[in-house]
Amino acid sequence: MAPRDQFSSPSPRSSTFQQDHSLHPTPRSLSVVESIYSQSQDSEWSDGTAASSIDESRPPRSLRPGIYVPTVTFFHPVTEDLDLPTISQHAVRLAKAGIAGLTTQGSNGEAVHLTHQERKLVTKATRNALDGAGYHAMPIIVGCGSQSTRETIELCREAMTSGGDYALVLPPSYYKGMYKADSLMEFFKEVAEASPIPILIYNYPGAVSGIDMDSDVIVKLAKHPNIVGCKLTCGNTGKLGRIASSVDAVTPSHAGSGFMCMGGSADFTLQTLVVGGSGIICGLGNIAPQACVKVIELYAEGKMEAAKKLQAVVARGDWAAISGGIVGTKSALESYYGYGGFARKPLPRPSKADAIKYASGFKDLVELEKSLA
Asked: How confident is the model at residue 2 (pLDDT cuts 50, 70, 90)?
């Protein structure tokens, strides 16, 4: 399938949703002190990606409504070193399925298992693979959450220099018992002011000690000119609808303000669209990207009954992804597509019985995926 837009690109954020100019960023400085991880590459990383040039002056590629896939990070089965060729091939496979964009360094990408240097390599390899296959306009969102404001800003800077277009930022949580009422608000404002790329707020209570940002906070932060979207993995479609309405979010049929209000799981894709959301950032797309895309296409075409039937199959497959986690997703990729490998330790390697169980959970969805090829 040739490179194509899933939907027409929305216009820049319009005056329909007025920005709060008291939150305008100061001139953004890139003079963030390099961390101990940002050292010169060792010879073991001489893969060719480091030599490629990333144009840091270019504007970010536009986000548009659709499916965004948080890509899996692949490792050598013995050494656990990055498997950059497979990372690259997987990115192109997803792009060919008609997705709107990719996300690196998410939960599915085992960001917590990677050094700063490895994070940069994964994003560079993904960008180079997309460009090499002709997908120059496809944006990359990079997970940049960390426990300090300082390191989060550093990760945003590294994301930009590695070819990322947007940063996806979780709230810090390790010291949540000591936060004041406005601590998270200040965190996101400071990151947005310092980040060289626009950011999306990531609300995922399960990953951050139960912190669940409410719609009032997210709507207020959305007024910042460098905060351009949110991902809600909390599954609260009521919250998503409130945010989407308040910010006049972009949808498949409405450019709106340009703000991207995204669901965080494929099992509520249709629900997200019905309440005015922009699309989904979903790990299930690693297994069945065309099926995930098709739900949105059917909705945009007004074919609701067909969309509902397809959504049911996608939801069953997503339960397999949710219950099996990254271990199950990689196992299913191995079973059905011949690559996937294992997660980094201490995550367990699946037994033969586990692999059969994981493959069974995705069976109907993969059959549907292959019928769409």
From this structure: very low
